[in-house]
Write a structure and sequence with these properties.
Helices cover 71% and strands 0% of the residues. It has 1480 residues and is mainly α. A hairpin with a 2-residue loop joins strand 1 and strand 2. The termini are far apart.
Length: 1480
């Protein structure tokens, strides 16, 4: 609605918004921001009516209660230097300063600096007035800060800088604006004048200037409309002079006196009432600062004949005297003289007699009346009293006068009754002394003012006032010191007993007055006889127990020995049973043993304490116990007497005795009956039913136990715990109050039960409070609090409610706890219940939390917390949660750092066991504490984390609670990432579910994921510094896997992390590492997981796999050509280098920056002390060497030299990878290969001699092939023969790859023969021809194709171009049969060169034992073709016997194809031998 142009709607909205905002504790942040925007906009819009703009400004100021910084930011944005602002912007700043003093002070300097630049721009009268209003508000705010800076929550600011700016602004206004100001503008200046001058007075250097501005203020007394504001400003200035102890110049004081008196005695018009009141207050301030000079001024002015002036001064005098200004005590005589001067002035009397006007007479008469009132104020006991000499009569008249006033001054009729009793008794005395007692008059003049206070309307309790009357009576009797008169007075009191009912307050007061009279009587025989009379005939007193108890109690104040002696005699002589029987017949009740017990208690309570302690055990307590035991016997047998009156009387007596002992304040006194009496009280409580609450025994026994607990000897901790536990177990399990009250039959019964319930709970709370805080050991206090723990978390609401109400009593209202008392555990236990189901529990929990802060002496935020506490009355759970959150943020700041762990322990327990709302509150409090105190937790971090881990298995079952655990870990990590990471890394491997979840929580938190990754990378780097991987490095890798697996971006850390993980995989190859010892908490695992021994390399590889997956998602890598098999290759020591090569090929070369960083960080691997790591680095770089772009930008030049060195290493795999790198250099940097051909060729050719490892040979062959493609015959000439010879040795290698590469290389060598090596190469071809021909049918088709190609290339070297036609058949779609091909080949060859054919024959025997069936078969078939085409000459050279034998053996070959070929060859041999007549 606010974004519309409807001004009517806006006015209604803003009118209601202010109230809503002020009465709402919590507003949504988004709503607040929108309201700030619209309110600020409308406030500054001059097109909108002024009323709406004003309302918008009020709303904006109200919003500061919810987000002060945003409001201040908005206003300051529109309050710029050298730009005249909108007036409502200035007014808003002023209101913010007034309403939010604490928050505004830090912005005040900036505001004043800006405002100072605007004053010259303000030409408009209205705008100038606005700046004056702002000056007034700012001065008041700074004045408050100057005088109360200790109450502000931040370090002290330099207030002098602020007052400097105020001075400059004020001086400009007074010099430039004030002389020319209009009446309205002048009013604004006047309002600002008082606060500003008051502020400047605190500076000694501004004091003179400030006082010089006061005359201007006095000169503004011109108009009734503004006089009040002038006086108000003047009052503020005078208050500041008193506060800062500044003396006003005499001339200025006189001007102030005259101006103020004129405001009170204004003639002819009457003064404005408000202005007159303010002026009177100014005089009170002046009376405090300089009473002598003020009274001198009054004396001068009062001598005038102006009745208005006289009346005004007298009125001021009465006000000043009523204010009880201590400095006036020295000037009372002067005041009396001044008043008497007026009263004795004949001119007034003459005017009264001569006046014709009723009004004039009234004025003159008022002077006299006011004078009398002043004198009465000075001494109300003397003025107007008759001058009598008899003290009793004087006493009586004075009190009767007070009684006459009582009904008009006090609404309490009991005051009248008390006066009446005392006055009536005193006036009945018939034997009065004839002598005057002047001391009595002095006494009453001293004491009566206190007694008259209630009559003057001052609140005084009836008990206190009654005590004051009795004390006055006692002192009066001692002053009179007349035994006969005292005896008669006691008889008079006794005679009046029948005049009042037993329940009346008069009767009760008469008992006490009679006891007080007896205690003042010096005739001990009379006192003794009176006591005996009361004991034997108590019926004359009315209520025998109350009467005799009150009388003997007060009598014991001075006659303890007499009272105890008479009581003992009466107790021994009386036949209580017979007396009771007589009373049944006579109707006159006599005292019982129960009554005597009560009397002993009252006697102890009033007796002189030191006398009492000497006789306590033998003459008081033992007698009470004796009486109780006698009442609990039937026929001499002790039984448990269920008589409630007996129990109540016994409890009352014991309580009063204990209170008396406590009042004695004898620190050395040991109360020997303490444990005995404590046992009686506990028995009473145990015998009370647990399903009802009908008697007050439980309540009274609790009170007795509380007082007993304070006495020495002090009980042990266990005794205290047992006592408290017993009492708690007898009260807290009671049914709900509703059920208890239902036991009552009438409403009165129900009210009584409710009364007993409230009193019992209150007594239990006070008992706990007393016992707990009487301890000097904090540990003992904690033990006692633990007794309530089970009740505080009870599943029954009413039990929780009682426990919280009790603990609130214990923790609130000025506690003095042991210095080392720890609040953390209790706070964690209680605070979450701010969101409990009942408002009473919520309030008690909040009060307890506030109380715990006060225990630690933290009072700064108490008022604010109490204000928030009111919001807990709401039944809306969301409101409760928000309020609790606000309270938590405040309280958490003040939890002692060393107690945070205990606090967190309790909140974690609460997360496990409390109801849902309290559970949420636990989480909120825990997170709030960690946010506020997280920085300082470093020393406790391990314990805190251990505590959290211990709760995780249980809390995992509660999803919402578990989320708080994860947030807590994240919060701790935000302050102590390093420590959290270290702690989590100590978890056993493999990580259990809880540990993985914690890593996940850190990864999911945007604020912490970067830090955790950085910390882990640093840890991993540290763990691999020596190229050795320990258990910690493995743990780091597992942690990285968990963090990365949740999608944590790795772009910035990828090069470093990839390198480290690859290094870790390398360093863990082949390791078998047991996990660290399991910690003691239960791990969340699948069955059998505990016994698994993790494979470090597998764990490391899994992390690298996870990293690569994330890298592919971010475009930093590509899919490996090995697929998932890559990771199997990497983790296997035998295939690790293959996996590394595949991994290197998967790197995204186009990400130049990434791959170059990886290369730079991996360069050290080539010189590592770890052989595996050198292999890893060499393998990785060997693949990168093929990339031209990396040669251009990277460090591969250095790598090339290291590769060449590694090519000579003793480790075969390392040599293989180095040779591969050298070979790939031909692809990546042909120019480098050519440049370093000699070094490279030597290193690679050397690899051909590593016959034990064909991998090295194969790699060398491949590398040679790549390099030779770049070189000319001249480049290779030196190595040509060696290469050819070594290459030929691998044509029959078992490894397909070796054979294939060797054939390819041999083929390439054909192009590099040159002239020098042509013949040599032709000879080598002849030797190799058999291999090429046989391997045409190699099991590997690629080798067959390679042999065909090499034959094609090599035939020209032998001059056998005619064989091309035969070789062409190999290109046909349908390959020729082996036998046919060889016969055709041999036919052609035989015609061209029999020598080569013979060479083929001589080399064929070695292939008869080939491991390949196809080669054996081909060899036999080739032999068949050779034999068939040899000439007779060569046939004769043939070793027919050997050939026959070999063929015969092949006829037994497992392969049928070989058998058939051997048979056929054998037949061919036989046939050829026959043909040439050769005998086999």
């Amino acid at each position: 609605m606010l974004n519309k142009e409807d001004n009517v709607s806006k006015e209604d909205i803003y009118s209601h918004l202010t109230s809503v905002i002020q009465n709402t504790d919590i507003l949504d942040e988004a709503i607040v921001q929108r309201l700030i925007y619209y309110a600020s906009k409308d406030m500054r819009d001059d097109k909108i009516p002024r009323e709406i703009r004003m309302l918008a400004g009020e709303v904006l100021v109200s919003l500061a209660a919810h987000d002060f910084n945003s409001v201040m930011h908005e206003v300051q944005n529109n309050f710029r230097i050298l730009e005249l602002p909108d007036e409502f912007v200035v007014l808003s700043l002023a209101e913010l300063a007034t309403s939010y003093v604490s928050q505004s002070i830090p912005f005040m300097m900036m505001t004043l600096l800006t405002m100072q630049t605007m004053l010259r721009l303000a030409e408009d009268e209205n705008m100038r007035g606005t700046f004056c209003i702002a000056l007034e508000k700012f001065s008041k705010t700074i004045y408050k800060y100057v005088n109360h800076w200790r109450d502000f929550p931040y370090p002290r600011l330099d207030a002098d800088r602020l007052s400097d700016k105020i001075f400059m602004v004020f001086r400009y206004i007074m010099e430039k604006w004030a002389p020319l100001a209009s009446p309205m503008h002048t009013l604004h200046i006047i309002k600002a004048h008082g606060p500003t001058v008051s502020l400047l007075l605190h500076r000694a250097d501004f004091c003179e200037y400030a006082l010089s501005q006061v005359p201007w203020l006095l000169s503004q007394y011109k108009d009734k409309e503004i006089d009040f504001h002038v006086t108000q400003s003047l009052k503020q200035i005078l208050t500041a002079t008193v506060l800062y102890d500044i003396g006003l110049p005499r001339s200025l004081r006189q001007s102030i006196f005259i101006s103020l008196l004129h405001q009170i005695c204004r003639v002819p018009e009457l003064p404005v009432k408000e202005n007159e009141i303010e002026a009177s207050r100014c005089f009170l301030i002046l009376a405090h600062s300089n009473p002598a000079e003020l009274l001198e001024f009054f004396d001068e002015q009062i001598r005038s004949n102006n009745e208005a002036t006289r009346t005004g001064i007298l009125t001021l005098l009465r006000s000043i005297i009523n204010a009880e200004e201590p400095r006036l005590r020295d000037h009372i005589i002067s005041i009396e003289r001044t008043v008497q001067l007026i009263m004795g002035d004949l001119s007034i009397k003459e005017k009264l007699m001569k006046t014709n006007s009723h009004e004039d007479g009234k004025k003159e008469k008022s002077v006299q009346e006011t004078s009398l009132q002043v004198l009465k104020t000075l001494d109300p006991l003397v003025i107007g009293m008759p001058q009598v000499r008899d003290p009793l009569l004087s006493l009586t008249i004075t009190l009767i006068t007070c009684l006459k006033l009582c009904p008009f001054r006090s609404k309490d009729t009991t005051l009248y009754s008390m006066y009446h009793q005392l006055f009536d008794a005193l006036t009945r005395g018939s034997i009065l002394p004839e002598m005057i007692h002047p001391k009595l008059v002095d006494l009453w003049q001293t004491r009566l003012p206190e007694l008259l206070q209630p009559l003057e309307g001052k609140n005084t309790s009836i008990v206190l006032w009654e005590t004051m009357l009795l004390q006055l009576l006692k002192e009066s009797l001692w002053k009179i010191s007349d035994t006969a008169w005292t005896i008669q007075l006691s008889r008079d009191f006794n005679q009046q007993m029948d005049s009042y009912s037993n329940t009346s307050i008069e009767k009760k007061f008469l008992w006490k007055a009679l006891g007080t009279t007896l205690t003042s009587c010096q005739d001990t025989n009379f006192v003794s006889s009176q006591i005996k009379e009361f004991l034997t005939a108590p019926h004359q007193l009315g209520d025998q127990r109350q009467g005799i108890t009150a009388i003997l109690g007060h009598c014991a104040e001075n006659h303890l020995d007499i009272v105890l002696k008479v009581l003992k005699t009466f107790q021994n002589q009386e036949k209580f049973f017979m007396n009771r029987c007589k009373s049944l017949f006579s109707g006159k009740k006599s005292l019982t043993k129960t009554d005597i017990m009560v009397i002993y208690g009252a006697v102890a309570l009033h007796a002189p304490k030191q006398q009492l302690l000497a006789r306590l055990d033998q003459d008081v307590v033992s007698q009470v116990l004796l009486l109780y035991s006698q009442c609990s016997q039937i026929l001499g047998v002790s039984v448990m007497n269920k008589d409630i009156d007996l129990q109540m009387s016994f409890t009352r007596s014991i309580t009063e005795i204990v209170i008396a002992v406590q009042d004695a304040e004898d620190l050395k006194f040991q109360f020997s009956y303490k444990e005995t009496l404590m046992g009686y009280m506990l028995d009473f409580i145990r015998d009370e039913p647990l399903d009802s609450l009908a008697s007050p025994v439980r309540w009274k026994a609790l009170i007795a136990i509380r007082y007993l607990s304070k006495l020495k000897p002090k009980l042990s901790l266990n005794d205290h715990l047992n006592i408290l536990e017993e009492n708690i177990r007898r009260l807290l399990p009671l049914p709900p109050l509703g059920s208890l009250t239902n036991d009552g039959r009438t409403d009165k019964d129900k009210e009584h039960i409710k009364f007993l319930y409230e009193r019992s709970m209150d007594a239990l709370g006070k008992l706990l409070r007393t016992v707990i805080w009487d301890n000097v050991k904090a540990e003992d206090c904690q033990e006692m609090f633990n007794l309530l723990r089970m009740w505080l978390v009870s599943q029954k609401e009413w039990e929780r409610e009682r426990a919280f109400q009790i603990i609130a009593k214990v923790l609130t209202n000025d506690i003095e706890a042991p210095e080392d008392f720890k609040i953390g555990s209790l706070l964690g236990l209680l605070a979450p219940h701010c969101c409990d189901t009942l408002p009473t529990i919520r309030q008690a929990a909040a009060s307890s939390a506030i109380g715990l802060l006060c225990i630690k002496g933290i009072h700064l935020e108490v008022e604010r917390l109490q204000g928030l506490q009111e919001g807990l009355e709401s039944d809306d759970v969301q409101v409760q949660i928000k309020v609790s959150s606000k309270i938590a943020k405040i309280v958490s700041k003040f939890i002692p750092n060393e107690e945070i762990q205990m606090f967190l322990e309790e909140t974690l327990d609460g997360l496990e066991s409390l109801n849902p709302t309290c559970t949420m509150a636990c989480g909120i409090w825990m997170i709030a504490a960690l946010k506020e105190q997280g920085v300082a937790l470093e020393d406790q971090l391990l314990e805190i984390l251990s505590t959290i881990y211990r709760h995780m298995p249980v809390l995992r079952q509660k999803e919402e609670s578990f989320q708080f655990i994860l947030e807590a870990i994240s919060q701790i990590a935000s302050f102590h990432m390093e420590a959290v990471v270290v702690n989590l890394l100590q978890k056993p491997l493999p990580f259990d579910r809880d540990t993985k979840t914690l890593w996940k929580a850190l990864a999911e938190n945007p604020a912490s994921r970067g830090k955790v990754m950085r910390a882990l990378v640093n840890k991993l780097e540290t763990g691999l510094e020596d190229d050795i991987a320990g258990i910690e490095a493995i743990s780091v890798a597992c942690a990285i896997q968990e963090v990365v697996s949740w999608g944590t971006p790795v772009t910035h850390l990828y090069p470093e992390l990839f390198t480290l993980l690859l290094k870790l995989v390398s360093c863990t190859l082949g390791q078998k590492m047991p996990t660290s010892p399991l910690n003691h908490r239960r791990r969340v695992m699948q069955q059998g997981e505990r016994q698994q021994i993790p494979d470090p390399c597998r764990l490391s590889t899994a992390t690298l796999k996870c990293l690569q997956a994330q890298a592919m998602r971010e475009g930093l890598a590509k899919e490996s050509d090995e697929g998932d098999n890559l990771w199997t290759l990497l983790s296997n020591p035998g295939t690790h280098h293959i996996g590394v090569c595949a991994l290197a090929r998967s790197m995204a070369v186009w990400q130049h920056g990434v791959i170059l960083d990886i290369m730079e960080q991996l360069l050290s691997s080539l010189t590592s002390s770890s052989e595996y790591y050198r292999i890893t680095g060499t393998a990785f770089f060997s693949e990168l060497m093929r990339e031209p772009i990396l040669w251009k930008h990277g460090n591969l030049r250095d790598v090339l030299s290291l590769m060449d060195q590694s090519a000579w290493d003793s480790n075969a795999i390392l040599r293989q990878m180095a040779i591969r790198g050298l070979g790939n250099t031909a692809s990546g940097a042909p120019h480098k290969a050519k440049k370093h051909k000699q070094i490279m060729l030597e290193s690679i050719i050397r690899g051909l001699y590593h016959l034990a490892r064909t991998e090295v040979v194969c790699e060398s062959l491949k590398a040679l092939k790549k390099i030779l493609e770049l070189l000319t015959d001249r480049d290779v000439s030196f190595y040509f023969k060696e290469i050819v010879l070594q290459t030929r040795t691998f044509f029959e290698d078992e490894q397909d790859d070796v054979r294939l590469t060797a054939i390819f290389l041999f083929e390439d060598m054909a192009s590099l023969t040159g002239r020098r090596w042509k013949i040599f190469f032709a000879e080598e071809i002849k030797k190799s021809l058999i291999s090429f021909l046989l391997h045409l049918w190699d099991p590997n088709p690629k080798i067959g194709a390679a042999c065909r190609d090499v034959l094609t290339v090599c035939i020209p070297f032998l001059g056998l171009q005619e064989l091309y036609g035969v070789l062409d058949h190999l290109l046909d779609h349908d390959l020729p049969r082996t036998r046919d091909f060889y016969r055709q080949f041999c036919v052609k060859l035989a015609k061209k060169n029999q020598e080569i054919l013979w060479i083929l024959h001589t080399h064929s025997f070695t292939f008869f034992t080939s491991s390949w069936e196809m080669i054996r078969s081909a060899a036999v078939k080739l032999t068949d073709a050779i034999v068939l085409n040899l000439t007779s000459q060569y046939m004769e050279l043939l070793d027919r016997e050997q050939l026959t034998t070999r063929l015969q053996e092949l006829r037994q070959d497992p392969c049928i194809s070989v058998q058939r070929a051997a048979e056929a060859a054998l037949q061919t041999l036989l046939r050829r031998c026959k043909e040439i007549s050769i005998i086999l």
